[in-house]
Design goal:
Order of helices and strands: EHHHHHHHE
Number of domains: 1
Oligomer: single chain
Helix content: 25-40%
CATH class: Mainly Alpha
Shape: globular
CATH topology: di-copper center containing domain from catechol oxidase
Strand content: under 5%
Strand order of the largest sheet: 1-2
CATH architecture: Orthogonal Bundle
Number of strands: 2
Length: 286
């Protein structure tokens, strides 16, 4: 059993070891494999193929397994490393510790939004983006999107999602109007004034975090570790609530074969959401 810590509590040595392991995965090509996987499984409502990762009930269990696989790869480099989490309701400014030059680096510069500080800056020679939408090879960030400002979610946004006792609801996609999953994933639910929580964090960071290849920015892992922690808090708050849909959808349901019920196996690991309900099988949060 290992622990995932709040990033603000990492020691200087822990930060250095995490960065070192990430850079080694990048050098080996394994890191870009994880980026490609996320791009492949980022399937939208409009597509007819199976949708395990986003706009779907399996958003939480799919990303839990995805993080565990990435963590396993990190630990093959350095067994002492785990993924920390970033509580963006608390560390919610560009001056927060995770953006320091000795950790993830800071915002992108004006103009091209290229990140110029930290170990993942292109100029350091260790972090080259491949297959990016723009064709440029550097990490981009655009904190707060000044041209159309966006703020990070606050505690009230998280609490609103945590209060919902239902895990998810039909039509099981980005327009589901209730349910913890979509309130936390953050598509535009009526009455929430636009995107929220998970999606709003991606948009606040901007740049490389704004699309399907968002793991190109290493902050992705810290963001999703916090979402995984919030899922555990929802489970504790609603012990009688269950993952939905609980069984395969009927033959006439337009989402049949596109979303994954409790015991239906998700690609690429052939694992069902039912096998990923309990995080304490793998690690603890501290």
């Amino acid at each position: 059993m290992y622990s995932r810590k709040n990033q603000r509590n990492l020691t200087r040595t822990e930060k250095k070891r995490l960065v070192g392991a990430i850079l080694e995965l990048k050098r080996s090509g394994r890191y870009d494999d994880f980026v490609s996987m996320h791009r492949h499984y980022y399937v939208t409502d409009a597509e007819s193929r199976p949708r395990p990762a986003h706009m779907t009930p399996s958003f939480f269990p799919w990303h839990r397994r995805y993080l565990l696989e990435f963590e396993k790869a990190l630990q093959a480099v350095d067994p002492a490393v785990s993924i920390p989490y970033w509580d963006w309701t608390r560390d919610n400014t560009p001056a927060a510790s995770l953006w320091a030059a000795d950790f993830l680096g800071g915002n992108g510069r004006p103009g091209d939004r290229q990140v110029m500080t930290g170990p993942f800056a292109y100029q350091e020679g260790n972090w080259r983006i491949s297959g990016g939408v723009t064709g440029d090879h550097f990490l981009r960030r655009n904190f707060g999107r000044p041209s159309a400002p966006v703020t990070l979610p606050g505690r009230a946004d998280v609490d609103r999602a945590l209060r919902d006792p239902v895990y998810d609801a039909a039509p099981w996609n980005s327009v589901s109007t209730t349910g913890f999953r979509n309130r936390m994933e953050g598509w535009d639910i009526r009455g929430t004034r636009g995107i929220s929580n998970h999606n709003r964090v991606h948009r606040w960071i901007g740049g490389s975090m704004a699309g399907a290849a968002s793991p190109d920015d290493p902050v992705f892992w810290l963001h999703h570790a916090y979402l995984d922690l919030l899922w555990t808090r929802w489970q504790k708050a609603h012990p009688r609530s269950r993952y939905l849909p609980g069984r395969a959808l009927g033959a006439g349901d337009p989402q049949r074969g596109r979303v994954f019920a409790f015991d239906e196996r998700m690609p690429p690991w052939d694992v069902a959401p039912s096998q990923l309900m309990d995080h304490t099988r793998f690690h603890r949060y501290v």
